[in-house]
Amino acid sequence: MPDEVAEPKNPTAVAASVVLLRFDGAGSRHGTRAIPSEVPVNLVYGGIPFAVMMTTPADLEDFAVGFSLTEGVIQSPTDIRGIRIGSEERGLRLAIELTPSRLHEHLARKRALSGRTGCGLCGIDDLSALPQARHPEGRAPSVSLSAIRSALRELDRQQALNELTHAVHAAAWADLKGTIRCVREDVGRHNALDKLIGSLARAGTKPDRGFVVVTSRCSFELVEKVAAFGARTLVAISAPTSLALERARHHDITLIGIARSDSVTVFHGVERILSGKGE
Questions:
Q1: Four-residue CA torsion sign, 129, 75, 184, 51
Q2: Over the stretch 128-153, which tens digit does the pLDDT of each residue have?
Q3: What is the pLDDT averaged over residues 254-269?
Q4: Which of 70, 106, 210, 270 could hold 266 in an S-S bridge, CB 3.0 to 4.6 Å?
Q5: C-alpha 100 chain-centroid distance
């Protein structure tokens, strides 16, 4: 892709005046607290608006690539010729320039998506429009319990915005040794994962060289996004939904949930988890 326009300087967090009230009647305390920024971001392809997502205004180039990839607008980052980020009256505009052939295919698709912080399906008009990624290629890698534990411990220390606000989700990429290589945060769990995938795709990261860790609810859209990138292991803080598990089985993605400091629960792919002397 050609050089991109610099991202406007928008704070990822703002200060809010608050009053702390105690249940024990010990009085109140006035102060300020950081809260995450949330702005509407209009994704536009070929001059035609496609989606408005409520997003933390950071890593927007990664978001543009990751969202385009996981929504099926593009097949690879090379389908994007350029990204321009600009301000609108009530938010930001991500103008994404596609190659002519890809723009033609995109315009032939019928989908209007109105994004919300917690929803990934707003706007579809038929059940056949549910996101479904292509089958990832190759064999899923084996992952050790020690690597998963290391990644979970390290991720806690790398969520800078959440440490400040206690109000955002994170998606991270760890190598097979459990070292966190990339973290993206956002008020929207889908957005955090899209930003991560966009960053990995732009860097040419091979999907079989690591695994994804998310700090959010594990719904089927997250599984589909991981599959769209080609990764085969997903570790989530929460349990998956029934459809998330169904799609993980369909794509043969190792699905690990209820990830805690002392244990994890494997919902699919336990034969690929290495532990003890077998590591």
A1: negative
A2: 445 566 767 778 999 999 999 999 99
A3: 94
A4: 270
A5: 27
Q: Which residues contact 184 (CB under 8 A, 6 or more apart)?
A: 59, 62, 170, 171, 172, 192, 193, 195, 196, 199
Q: What angle do CA 134, 136, 137 make, to 5 degrees?
A: 125
- Global pTM reads 0.87
Average confidence score pLDDT of the chain: 87
Catalytic annotation on 119? yes
Domains of the chain: 143-278 (3.40.140.10)
Distance (Å, rounded) from C-alpha 114 to C-alpha 162? Answer: 26
Please compute Rg for the chain using Cα positions: 19
* Cα distance between residue 129 and residue 126, in whole Å: 6
Catalytic residue among 119, 122, 182, 218: 119
159-197: per-residue pLDDT in tens?
A: 999 999 999 999 999 999 999 999 999 999 999 999 999
> 């292509």: which residue's tokens?
134
Q: Which residues contact 220 (CB under 8 A, 6 or more apart)?
A: 241, 243, 244, 246, 247
